[in-house]
Amino acid sequence: MRLSIYWVDVEGGGATLIVTPAGESVLVDTGLDNPRDPARIAKLAKDVAGLKQIDHLVVTHFDIDHHGGAAELSKLIPIRRVYDPGVERPKPEPMYVKYLAWRKSVPYTVLKPGDTIPLRQAEGGPKLSLTCLAAAQQFIAPGPEHKPSPIPASELPEYPVDNSENRESIVLLLRYGNFEFYDGADLTGRLEGKLVHPVNLVGEVDVYQVTHHGLDLSNNPVLVRSLAPTVTVMNNGDRKGCGPKTRAALKATPSIQANYQLHKNLAPNADNTPDELIANFDKEAACTKANHIELHVAPDAASYTLRIPATGHERAFRSK
Ligand SMILES: [Zn+2]
Fold first, then answer.
1. What is the DSSP letter of 165?
2. What's the pLDDT score for residue 185?
3. Strand pairing of 128-135 and 171-176?
4. CA 11 to CA 41: how far, in whole Å?
5. What three-state secondary structure class fits 4?
6. Ligand 1: distance of its center to the CA of 212 in Å?
């Protein structure tokens, strides 16, 4: 088997599915608690990825577009273990209470910076790891592999102090040989700056999941430049995300060869990526096909392919 990543269309929520070469699965976030999102995730997991269970579910933070679908999803496909940042949401809202009640029924781990999700290695293949770089406003300790940022501090944009759930986001780095994928969930700009400055605690990556659905509270241009991705994938909705500052940051990053979007942003004057890199063009209410984007890494991890099966789009990239 090969390493694959699937971005499920949950209309501007989060639901990223990783399937390892050993056949294990890691789902990062679960969309909303409507019947729609859990059904879409389960359908993709079973029918497209060929899974019988979700081995590891990472709930990056307690906003409903990330944890909302967990309890309902577990009725459609078994979930074997759940991870989250472990912080308490100050004001419990009904969906969070439902999530906490469900979490009691599953083996549960608080994910801390430096922790890795235990994944089986495929025999003879490149080394695979999935590491937590940040959670609950804490970062991984700098090590010899982390380089000082060459970007002057004066270039760090200012962001307001963030008191929302987003700041608690779990940030994940998936490594498979030379291939690296960054999923920053909904981490906001101030903390994104600290993650790569004065020391770059991430390094350069191949694929950047555009943070926070492409909202301008996130996607600090210094983070994007520091990660220097080749490909980006935005889990936006028909109106959510695809912010002008985010788009500007992506377009100003010379390493980027292709910016994918789950949805075309239908707001007047929205700045979208070229149509061939978009999976869905309908309004949310009419978006019944919910086309996904998928990525497959070659067995030697030297290259990878992005695909939009619904449109037939396919493009190959070299790993760094
Ligand atoms: Zn979100």
1. G
2. 98
3. antiparallel
4. 12
5. strand
6. 5
The CA 6 to ligand 1 mean position distance, Å, reads: 17
Q: How confident is the model at residue 204 (pLDDT cuts 50, 70, 90)?
A: very high
In 3-state terms, the chain is what percent helix, strand and coil (to 5)? 25, 25, 50
Kindly indicate whether the domain formed by 3-318 is annotated with CATH number 1.10.150.240.
no
Nearest one of 146, 26, 202, 165 to 85, comparing CA atoms: 165
**Calpha distance 219→36 (Å, rounded):** 28
Distance of alpha carbon 278 from alpha carbon 262, whole angstroms = 6
Number of helices followed by number of strands (H, E) in the chain: 7, 19
Look up the pTM and report it.
Answer: 0.97
Q: How far is the CA of 242 from the centre of ligand 1 (A)?
A: 13
For residue 200 the two structure tokens come to 């770059």
Residue percentage of the chain with pLDDT more than 70: 100
User: How many angstroms separate the Cα of 283 from the Cα of each of 43, 121, 193, 254, 263?
Assistant: 21, 41, 34, 32, 9
Q: What is the pLDDT of residues 233-263, one digit of tens each?
A: 999 999 999 999 999 999 999 999 999 999 9
Distance 150 CA to ligand 1 centre (A): 30
CA angle (126 as vertex; 123, 130 as ends), nearest 5:
100
What is the spatial distance between Cα 242 and Cα 261, in angstroms, rounded to a whole number?
8
Domain boundaries, the chain: 3-318
- 3-state secondary structure string across 187-218: CCHHHHHHHHCCEECCCCCCEEEEHHHHCCCC
